[in-house]
Amino acid sequence: MEELRLLNNKLNTYIKENWRKSMNEPTGILKYKFLDPAADYRGQLWDWDSFFCGLALLDVYDDTFEYIEGCVRNFADNQNIDGSIPYMIDVGEEKDFTYALPKLEKKPRSADSELNSAKPLLAQMTMLTYRKSQRKNFVSEMYPVLKKHISHWENTQRTSIGLFVWRSQRGSGTDNHPAVYGRPLNSSMAVELNCFMYLEYKAMAEIAEELALISESKLYSEKAQMLAKTINEHMWDPIDEIYYHLDALSKNPKLNNQPIAWDVPLKFKMWTAFMPMYAGVAPDAYAAVMVKKHITNPAEFWSEYGIRTMAKNEPAYSTKEMSNPSNWQGPVWIVSTYLVFKGLLNYNYVDEAKLLAKNLLKNLCRDIDENGAMHEYYNPETGNSTMNLGFMNWNALAGCMYSDIKSRLGESNE
After folding, report:
1. Is the entire prediction scored with pTM above 0.85?
2. Is residue 170 helix, strand or coil?
3. Which of 4, 34, 164, 232 is 20 to 30 A off residue 90, Cα-Cα?
4. Residues of the chain whose pLDDT is less than 70?
């Protein structure tokens, strides 16, 4: 742990000195404080970016919770009448933000729109800031917004078997996931999406309990339990021993008698397969085989620099640097590596988590020494990158790994 401690100290010194650049005061149409990813994404509020950046910085600065709360308020302020919320909100035409994208229009999503609503993370973000601030009025104010957003997902993106689908790759986060990218609308029941929704239901249950809405808290808890069961019943592949996205387009043929009673997995081995460990819904036996067969397998996901986003032995595996879409078919991203790391800790694979943390932190510290900053993602074969130098955002999650390990071991972080 000593080498990891030294790497952690070095990295956290850099984070504390630099991450204020991602913390923004109200600007343009963003009326509240917010977090942006920096680099080429200045002036943009993204859903999961702001959530995981806020999570990473929560204990770095005393006022981080105010920016997380501001992010939630900005999303709430842009909720549409149908309950949908843009997954990205741009400051608008502000001269200081030269890379700003055109803002998403504030209007209900049509049935043929390619845009996803914001990911089901806003209740989790609300609880993240509430645990720090204890501002119950904020939670009370946001609860109707969160309920409406959850209902929008349920009304538009939930399938008959109870699993949720992405509308398309736009706003799905893992831009070019081959089980989503380029496929027809509403065709991919996604592992990570359903894990996010499971955690969102749990956060909604917690919020409702805080507000003394006991029956609603129970309802959301029951929804979480049912979704966890459905994830394991349908998305686990007992042959390959991994979770897969599922095709949602199968329909019973007309004039035929046999109903479709099977699942059609979209067989791409991706980092998203391990999200049930992050969410804590994977049975112990499933977690054990995934750790041994997939996560720590150098021929698949394990790299000296972090976790590959796609298994190396997949035909589509690529380390190409690109944007629009960003490449999630092989490169090491800090957020996906961290989520796999948290899954390892959740299931008590501490030694594997320690090694993963050391590998990632060593490469990030090297990048800072050589280039003065971090990049957006990294080549899993070399550890190098030329992609968006100065990217900040959720890269700060790497600064949480050492303290997460100590907490799992029951050791003080003082």
Report:
1. yes
2. coil
3. 164
4. 39, 92-106, 412-414
